[in-house]
Specification:
This protein is mostly helical. It has 2 helices and no strands.
Length: 46
């Protein structure tokens, strides 16, 4: 969802280093943000 976050982890190959990047990015978040739910069958699929 977050292009800035995706760009940060895309370039890190080492799993431990990647987890450190994820942790440092997410530790300041205090609220879970959800994506919009995908509704299937709305477009006239029968």
């Amino acid at each position: 969802s977050d292009p800035n976050f995706a760009d940060k982890i895309r370039h890190v190959r080492d799993p431990k280093a990647r987890m450190a990047v994820v942790w440092s990015h997410c530790k300041t978040k205090m609220v879970c943000e959800t994506d919009e739910p995908k509704e299937e069958g709305i477009e006239g699929d029968v």
